[in-house]
Design brief:
Elements: H1 6-15, H2 25-39, H3 43-50, H4 63-78, H5 82-95, H6 108-123, E1 137-146, H7 161-165, H8 169-196, H9 208-238, E2 245-254, E3 267-272, E4 279-284
Antiparallel strand pairs: 1-2, 3-4
Helix pairs in contact: 1-2, 2-3, 2-4, 3-4, 4-5, 5-6, 8-9
Length: about 280
């Protein structure tokens, strides 16, 4: 026979005062009346008041819903309706998988009944006992693979294409600057030398010194452009990634989208040693 002292029931109500944020007044009144009925062990009245609130959307995720399910399940059990209690406790456990009934407030038969149902749901994989129902997302370390699809011919393009393809933006910027300066110098000096030529296509003796200086600048510009180009091609091919880049970053992931942990199995093998004497023990992961 089950017995339940009045004093612990008073303690139950005192330790879990329901809040009223976002809950209609009629529901708050029902919960208050159910609390009073639960204190005096009027379990049929508790069932009558709380049963309509089990699936009410206004209570979803709120502490009041947990209290409604806890009181209702306990009232069913203490009234002898164990099947009804099992259904209510199942819903309570699914929504609050880490909840344990206080053994100081409820009789041991009730807490054992609740714990057995909770263990059944854990064994069936219905709930994760470590999940906090208040946490809908978790910060996870994400491994990201970035593949490189740049064709080899692209590394022979000028202006640091190989460096930018390798994600070496700083080095690519330097190459672009050097090649741009070299090309600009080459074009400008060539244009200036062409302007010094007469109708016959030759530079006059008076402009020969200026033409020589411009020619030296043209050679310097061409050397800078060509050297930067050769460096860009060689460096790009030499530092071309052999495989995808692997990067790690923290990201907030929804609980429902987190993949399950990999199934890691291990085995222990005992057999004769290869040396001819003794026993060999092998552990395989």
């Amino acid at each position: 026979m089950l017995t339940l002292a009045t004093a612990p029931l008073d303690a139950i109500a005192a330790t879990t005062p329901p809040t009223t944020a976002g809950i209609p007044r009629e529901m708050t009144q029902r919960i208050t009346q159910a609390e009073a009925a639960f204190r005096v062990q009027a379990y049929p009245r508790v069932v009558e008041l709380l049963q309509p609130l089990v699936d009410n959307p206004f209570l979803d995720g709120k502490p009041e819903h947990r209290q409604v399910l806890e009181w209702l399940g306990a009232s069913h059990y203490l009234s002898g309706a164990q099947d009804a209690a099992r259904l209510v406790f199942t819903k309570l456990i699914q929504e609050w998988p880490r909840l344990h009934l206080d053994e100081l407030l409820y009789p041991p038969e009730l807490t054992s009944f609740y714990d057995a149902r909770r263990q059944d749901l854990i064994d069936l994989g219905v709930i994760d006992p470590n999940r906090d129902p208040n946490v809908t997302a978790r910060m996870m370390l994400v491994r990201e693979e970035i593949s490189h699809d740049t064709p080899t011919i692209a590394y022979f393009a000028p202006f640091g294409v190989g460096q930018f393809a390798n994600h070496q933006d700083g080095k690519g910027t330097v190459v672009v600057t050097l090649q741009a300066l070299g090309l600009a110098t080459t074009v400008a000096t060539w244009w200036a030398i062409e302007g010094l030529k007469d109708d016959s296509g030759y530079v006059s003796a008076a402009d020969e010194s200026e033409a020589s200086a411009l020619n030296a600048l043209w050679i310097a510009g061409a050397t800078v452009f060509g050297g930067a180009y050769i460096y860009s091609v060689v460096d790009g091919l030499a530092n071309r990634p052999a495989g995808p880049d692997v990067r790690y970053h923290n990201e907030l992931i929804d609980i429902e989208d987190i993949p399950p942990a990999p199934d890691v199995t291990s085995s222990l093998r005992i057999g004769p040693t290869t040396q001819g004497v003794g026993v060999c023990v092998g552990l395989t992961f």
